[in-house]
Amino acid sequence: MPVYQYRCEKCGHVFEKTEHLAEHVSAHPNCPKCGSQSVQHAPAPFVAVTQRKS
Question: What is the number of domains present in the chain?
């Protein structure tokens, strides 16, 4: 499952939430710090971890 990063517009708290792709489309998480519903998706840098086989 992908991990999505959110930012609270009220207190500025940045937090992560693990969601299925289908859940992410309709997700409206509350801020875990202040409980606000004014939360926006905060794009995070993508990092791919690979393992080279020799």
Answer: 1
Range of the structural domain that residue 23 is part of: 3-41
Residue with tokens 């080279």: 52
Q: What are phi and psi of 26, to 5 degrees?
A: -110, 10
Helix, coil or strand: residue 46: coil
**CA-CA distance, 33 to 29, in Å (whole number)?**
12
Edge-to-edge strands, sheet with 39-41: 14-18, 3-8, 39-41
pLDDT (tens digit per residue) in 30-42: 999 999 999 998 8
